[in-house]
What does this fold into?
Amino acid sequence: GILQLRLPTPLSRIAMRGRQLAGIGMWCTTTLAQPAPELARDLEYLRPAELSVDADRYSCELPAGSGRAVGVCEDDLEKLKSQLAFCGDVVRYRACIPAHQPLWNAWTASAKDALLGSIFKSMVETRVAREMNLTPDEYVELHLLSNSGCHAAMKNALCWHNFPKCNDANVSLALCRRSCEQYFSACRYE
It folds into this structure.
């Protein structure tokens, strides 16, 4: 059987299996005293002193379908185009962009766009270098080399996924199947 010992203070139960009680082979459950919980603390000092300039705008999900409403729908297409040096020529719609975050002022639509541009450049250069490596030891399929259609399709997919379209209800729309199929077709992955 199980024998319970109780202590006369505010208690919390902790099972102590494997401990014998007085050497008679019985398992026991002991309870140990814990201090009374503290009252709630004032956390006002943790509240941000500055609100986001986007606090009154409609939020959207970045990335689309993630369940994280960390972006805002940009209605001004000229402003959006001016912020996107890399993706500006393909993102010609009302898009979900990173919202202003007082704690991370440097993370903006322009910063995200610049990061995407450098990632794209690195991906293309790495793949082209691999495709240009003429060695009898390894066969490398050609996808990007002398294939401007692939470059464009890859850029479209990258930009459209990272700056999803906002519909009229401010919902981020995921990259459509047709965009992915165009990428796979243009880059000869099919």
Remarks:
- Residues 1-30 have pLDDT under 50 and may be disordered.
- Residues 11 and 33 are 5 Å apart (CA to CA).
